[in-house]
Amino acid sequence: MAEDVAKIIAAVRAEGDAAVEHFESQFGSGARPPFAPGPGSLPDDVRAGLEVAIRNVGAVATSGLDRDREVKFPEGQSIKLREVPVRRAAVYAPGGRNPYPSTVVMGVVTAQAAGVDEVYVVGAPHPVMVGAAELCGADGYFAVTGAQAVAALAYGTDSIPRVDVIVGPGSLWVQEAKRQVSGVVGIDGFAGPSDLTVIATDGADMEALRADLAGQAEHGEGSLTVAVSDDQTILDALDAQHGVFVESMDDALAFVEVLAPEHLQLAGEAAEALAPRIRSAGCLFVGSESGTAFGDYVVGSNHVLPTEGAARFASGLNVRHFRRRMAEVRVGSAAASLAAAGVPIAEAEAFEAHAASMRLRQNSRP
Ligand SMILES: N[C@H](CO)Cc1c[nH]c[nH+]1
């Protein structure tokens, strides 16, 4: 598959819209340049729900913004650490088996909270997804899908703007394409099939947990559900794809730290005590009311999360995926003392021109 994806990317890079149209007719929705989707349409109750999602996801995303910082040295130099948004971002929203207006919200609202100037959506031209993008105030929607969509966004075509960051879940083709263009553009990471692990202890609401597990299994192919408990009767009743019996909660924690699930629910009397001990989950849901489905849609946390164990090192989608940090440097009156320190290092590296550039400022006055 990696080779096929590489061929698609190379073709789109070389031929632009014509190649996108070709692959779209072969594997996608068949849209033609300029890849405009049909009109958006949102039933009133869906619109109202999405408005709640937009408000809550926006509030959480905004709270993740880092502020600029400045370090001033007594020698005279100052370094400002500036947090700056990228100019353009795109959200890939899957719409093959089911339309995902919720993913449109997760991506667009987070990019907007990050301060991105232009935010685009790509995906199947489903009216509810287009309507969600309009409701969020996205700057455009392109009815392109698959690896060709990712390639078009990475390199730009006549119809599709080149962006700085591409985020969002998608098929293995989409994820492989994102991996291959990363470096040319920023990406959020690998967002594969959904998984849910529950740690259920005494007092867990079994009916609710069964519903939660069935919910994530509903994503179909590749989705993974795991129940962990120190009580075999709980495991039998939950009927997850995998039931993992543990002797103790320490063993349960050790297990989930290695698995690093996308979603981890803690249910039952031990839930609150366990919560602070969890480190490696994409998103942690604590207590009987906290079903993963709330996180999929409206509670405010993001549902674009690291899967397949990536929660060991990666974060769920957040404003940092759309921002970069840039140091702003003023050497000022520190030139002399810094040159005294820097010149010998440059000379040790045999970089005489580097040394000269510092040395000649040794006597300057700001
Ligand atoms: N559970 C998915 C990934 O965490 C997100 C989603 C969208 N729609 C329903 N669920």
UniProtKB/TrEMBL annotation:
Q: Which SUPFAM superfamilies match?
A: ALDH-like
Pfam families attached to this UniProt entry? Histidinol_dh
The keyword Oxidoreductase is assigned to this record: yes
Give the CC-aspect GO terms.
cytoplasm
* Keyword line: Oxidoreductase
**GO BP term, example:** L-histidine biosynthetic process
A GO MF term = metal ion binding
Q: Which domain of life is it from?
A: Bacteria
What family does the database annotate? Belongs to the histidinol dehydrogenase family.
Q: What is this protein called?
A: Histidinol dehydrogenase
Q: Which organism is it from?
A: Solirubrobacter phytolaccae
